């Protein structure tokens, strides 16, 4: 899988590869959306790639990840194949949710990727429940919960973090503060602007870091994950980042709720460019190697598009599948071990 | 056969299922130290400890979501709402998470969990504490909804609900907890989705469920004195509904009254009437009538509350009307 191996050293080239894959994937997603190959709501991750890559490089395969509807980047960084994600966006049978979920609901049970969730705030109590289950079973896994900064104003966020603080659960809440909840700036939505400070209300360790710097993200997440794994304590981590695209596919990138100048200022701190410059400075990357990597990734994304195009539509009879688990013989089933 | 209260029958079900499967836990407000707001969980904290009988803050949306998360990774939560009137605060987790997780994940994440608590009116609890939510809850695919009316049904259905790999919503009743009935010592389960013909007669069918099944029985007793014999079909499960049981009874009696605790518009009774008109049109000798709560928020004053609630007298009147008596 494309995820990290716990404490092991993460190669910068792997991080670059992961981030560049998300970028190229999203660029082609936007194109496919414009061509009508992808429907519904679609929220791109461009600009925030250091958050997913930095965070997920710290995790073990048996840890859990849950996120919002802006989930393509995290799904790829966790290791769902570009083919399975793109096929899902196309609403095809080979999609990672069999074409039933779409852009906002990417799932992969084999990777403990517990989904993209579409109701702002609702997945935060769910993450808390995953952490409760870890503690219940006496395991040392960790649950990572990604969310946008607008989530912190929901009741679900408050209720969930209160319980995590109260019960000391092994969960890391990662606020991807991209400054805008749809078109509403943080300062127009939250009474406090250093939102990691909200952790104080839940007796929770809190921190903030630069979300454009993959090294900063990894360091902060590693500390939080260690705290969760070794001490069963939650952390609220605010990662400051920016989305380079609109909220979804229908709004202008700039000009209404944010200025072009602000966008351009943040684009100066493109997380992929920052990592590339670091690697070039260290002598870890040549222009040729970067070009080669980029071509490989573009080919991989093209392959995903071709695969999604050819993948069959879900069978009409699947309409009624997976509404309920068939339990016709369940009443007599014996308990089995929890997974 | 031992006679136990509805409350103790639920307690037995929880205890037996928690003994049987250590993935089962109970979570909610006042379920542990306080021993349950209605004492349904009495003694469970002492037997199973605080990890499996979990007191929560007053935070319905939060702990319902905790249940969803725990179910996603293999536990089998029983989430108690002190009343379904408070459960509506958690409806987002029931509707948007629990009922949809299996479907929107393409079959990857079953939700083996129970949401349970009292539903409907008690006595003089007024507007915000007296509501019947079964038609709201049964409206959505992806869940099962059970409404036991007797201690026997409560135990058997709750045990089945806990063993089910789907979200099951169990609607109990404050006024039911003290009611008594026979519950055998030996283990049994009641399959979800099976109605029971609680009384047999050939003049008319009363279809009901939950607490109102008891009202239907009272009505049947009084009608019997006038030599009017009715079938009482207790649905026991609202979703999936046992349509065959309804059809079999109406085909025999040719008349039906549907009795429910909730409001009229888009109520469960409307759905039952639809099944009857669709499948029993040629069997009917009279239009099907419905008995339900008056279309008002529940008032506090005793006399007004009585006027608002469906009861045996209103049911008897409806039965006589479909029989063209008086």
Give your account of this protein's structure.
The complex is a heterodimer of chains A (339) and B (326). Chain A is an alpha/beta fold and 339 residues long. Chain A has one domain: Rossmann fold. Chain A has 10 helices and 8 strands. Chain A has helices at 12-34, 49-56, 72-78, 82-89, 123-137, 155-167, 214-231, 260-267, 271-281, 287-310, and strands at 64-67, 113-116, 143-148, 171-177, 180-181, 184-185, 205-210, 235-240. In chain A, the strands form 2 sheets. In chain A, strands 2-1-3-4-8-7 form a 6-stranded parallel beta sheet, sandwiched between helices. A two-stranded antiparallel ribbon of chain A has the order 5-6. The longest helix of chain A is centred in the last third of the chain and has 24 residues, at 287-310. Chain A is globular, with a radius of gyration of 20 Å. Chain B is of the alpha/beta class and 326 residues long. Chain B has 2 domains: 3-182, 3-Layer(aba) Sandwich (Rossmann fold); 196-322, Rossmann fold, CATH 3.40.50. Chain B has helices at 6-20, 44-48, 60-72, 84-87, 91-98, 101-104, 134-138, 151-163, 211-225, 243-253, 268-279, 302-308, 312-322, and strands at residues 3-5, 24-28, 53-55, 76-80, 114-118, 144-146, 168-172, 180-182, 196-199, 204-208, 230-234, 237-239, 256-259, 289-291. In chain B, the strands form 3 sheets. In chain B, strands 3-2-4-5-7-6-12 form a 7-stranded mixed beta sheet, with helices on both faces. Chain B has a 5-stranded mixed beta sheet with strand order 9-11-10-13-14, with helices on both faces. A two-stranded antiparallel sheet of chain B has the order 1-8. In chain B, α1 (6-20) runs parallel beside α8, α3 runs parallel beside α5 (91-98) and α10 packs across α11. The termini of chain B are far apart. In chain B, 58% of the residues are buried. The mean pLDDT of chain B is 98. The chains are: A alpha/beta (339), B alpha/beta (326). At the A-B interface, α5 and α6 of A face α3, α5 and α6 of B.
């Amino acid at each position: 899988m494309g995820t990290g191996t716990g404490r092991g050293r993460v190669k910068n080239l792997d991080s670059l590869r992961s981030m560049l894959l998300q970028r190229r994937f999203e660029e082609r997603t936007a194109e496919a959306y414009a061509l009508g190959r992808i429907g519904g709501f679609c929220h791109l991750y461009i600009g925030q790639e250091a958050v997913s890559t930095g965070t997920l490089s710290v995790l073990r395969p048996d840890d859990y990840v849950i996120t919002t509807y802006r989930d393509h980047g995290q799904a790829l960084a966790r290791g769902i194949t570009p083919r399975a994600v793109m096929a899902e966006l196309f609403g095809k049978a080979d999609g990672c949710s069999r074409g039933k979920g779409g852009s906002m609901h990417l799932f992969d049970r084999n990777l403990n990727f517990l989904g993209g969730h579409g109701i702002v705030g609702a997945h935060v109590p769910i993450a808390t429940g995953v952490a409760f289950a870890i503690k219940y079973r006496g395991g040392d896994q960790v649950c990572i919960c990604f969310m946008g900064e607008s989530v912190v104003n929901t009741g679900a966020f408050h209720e969930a973090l209160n319980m995590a603080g109260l019960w000391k659960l092994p969960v890391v809440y990662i606020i991807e503060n991209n400054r805008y909840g749809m078109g509403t700036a943080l300062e127009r939505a939250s009474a406090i602007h250093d939102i990691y400070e909200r952790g104080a209300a839940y007796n929770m360790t809190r921190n903030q870091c630069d979300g454009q710097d993959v090294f900063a993200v990894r360091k902060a997440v590693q500390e939080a994950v260690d705290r969760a794994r070794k001490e069963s304590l939650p952390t609220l981590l605010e990662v400051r980042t920016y989305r380079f695209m609109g909220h979804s596919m229908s709004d202008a990138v700039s000009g209404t709720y944010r200025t072009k100048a602000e966008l351009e200022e943040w684009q100066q701190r493109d997380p992929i460019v920052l990592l590339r410059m670091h690697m070039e400075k260290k002598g870890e990357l040549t222009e040729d190697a970067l070009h080669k990597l980029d071509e490989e990734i573009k080919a991989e994304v093209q392959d995903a598009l071709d695969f999604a195009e050819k993948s069959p539509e879900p069978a009409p009879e699947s309409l009624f599948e997976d509404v309920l688990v068939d339990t016709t013989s369940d009443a007599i089933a014996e308990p089995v071990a929890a997974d | 056969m031992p006679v136990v209260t509805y409350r103790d029958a639920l307690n037995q079900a929880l205890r037996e299922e928690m003994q049987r499967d250590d993935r089962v836990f109970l979570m909610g407000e006042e379920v542990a130290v306080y021993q349950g707001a209605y004492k349904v969980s009495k003694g469970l904290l002492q037997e199973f400890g605080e990890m499996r009988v979990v007191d929560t803050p007053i935070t319905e949306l939060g702990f319902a979501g905790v249940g969803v998360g725990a179910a996603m990774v293999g536990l089998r939560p029983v989430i108690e709402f002190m009343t379904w009137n408070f459960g509506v605060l958690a409806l987002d987790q029931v509707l948007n998470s629990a009922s949809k997780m299996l479907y929107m994940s393409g079959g990857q994440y079953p939700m083996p969990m129970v949401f349970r608590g009292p539903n409907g009116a008690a006595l003089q609890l007024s507007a915000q504490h007296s509501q019947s939510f079964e038609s709201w809850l049964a409206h959505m695919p992806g869940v099962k909804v059970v409404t036991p009316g007797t201690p026997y049904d409560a135990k058997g259905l709750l045990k089945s609900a806990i063993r089910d790999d789907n979200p099951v919503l169990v609607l109990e009743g404050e006024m039911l907890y003290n009611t008594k009935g026979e519950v055998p010592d030996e283990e049994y389960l009641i399959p979800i989705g099976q109605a029971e013909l609680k009384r047999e007669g050939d003049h008319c069918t009363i279809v009901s469920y939950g607490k109102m099944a008891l009202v239907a029985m009272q009505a049947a007793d009084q009608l019997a004195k006038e030599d009017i014999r009715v079938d009482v079909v207790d649905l026991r499960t609202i979703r999936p509904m046992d349509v065959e049981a309804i059809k079999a009874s109406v085909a025999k009696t040719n008349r039906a009254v549907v009795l429910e605790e909730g409001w009229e518009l888009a109520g469960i009774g409307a759905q039952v009437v639809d099944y009857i008109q669709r499948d029993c049109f040629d069997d009917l000798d009279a239009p099907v009538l419905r008995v339900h709560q008056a279309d008002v928020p529940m008032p506090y004053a005793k006399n007004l509350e009585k006027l608002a609630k469906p009861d045996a007298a209103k049911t008897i009147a409806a039965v006589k009307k479909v029989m063209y008596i008086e």
